[in-house]
Amino acid sequence: MVRDPAGDVGTGGLDATRVSVGRAPDGRIRASVTMGAPWAPRDLLADSGPPGSICLRAWLGGRRPSASQPDYLVCATVAANNERLKASVFRERAGQLPERVAGASATKPSARTAVLRFGQSALGRPAVLRFAVETAPGGCARLSCVDTAPDAPRSARVALR
């Protein structure tokens, strides 16, 4: 589990204060992200600018986050009905747009928490995963409204086997 100090993101940001990643009983990877204050999926909508997101950034093979972009992103954003979340797994490659490689599920079990679930096979069944979470509200186009947990360029590590 990763704890991140509350209040370390600019006004209007989604302040991630706790992240836990591990294997769920069904074998999928489960990432739980708790914010410092209540929020709603509608907070990921944007009047202008990019939509908001909650993303698990994943590095494989012992690569250090400070030296490289993540290998995969598992991101949730607001669904078409503006009340729920939707999620996907994307593969990152230098100089290319992220490629969607698998589906994922995203739920909001409480006023402050989002849970992402996805198959370990979507990442190639790694034994160890380095991770960080990045949150951005809708319309966020500056670094001042993005939060990372743990604070960038740090990451956390979890054994999956």
Task: Give a brief rundown of this model.
This protein has 161 residues and is mainly β.
Topology:
Blueprint: E1 2-3, E2 16-23, E3 29-35, E4 53-59, E5 72-78, E6 85-91, E7 99-107, E8 113-118, E9 128-136, E10 147-149, E11 156-159
Antiparallel strand pairs: 1-2, 2-3, 3-8, 4-5, 4-9, 5-6, 6-7, 7-8, 9-10, 9-11
Structure, described:
- The protein is mainly β.
- It has a single domain (2-153), classed as Sandwich (Immunoglobulin-like), CATH 2.60.40.
- Helix content is 0%, strand content 43%.
- It is built from no helices and 11 strands.
- Strands 1, 2, 3, 4, 5, 6, 7, 8, 9, 10 and 11 form an 11-stranded antiparallel beta sheet that branches.
- Strand 5 (72-78) and strand 6 (85-91) form a beta hairpin.
- The radius of gyration is 15 Å and the shape is globular.
Which labels suit this protein?
single chain; 161 residues; mainly beta; Immunoglobulin-like; 0% helix
Class by SSE composition: mainly beta
Under the CATH scheme, which architecture would be assigned? Sandwich
What is the overall number of helices? 0
% residues in beta strands: 35-45%
| General form | globular
Number of domains: 1
**Mean pLDDT over the residues:** 90
Radius of gyration over C-alpha positions, nearest whole angstrom: 15 Å
Helix content: under 10%
End-to-end CA span = 17 Å
Number of separate strands:
11
Low-confidence stretches: none
CATH class, named Mainly Beta
Reported by name, the CATH topology is: Immunoglobulin-like
The largest β sheet comes out as:
11 strands, antiparallel
What is the H/E order?
EEEEEEEEEEE
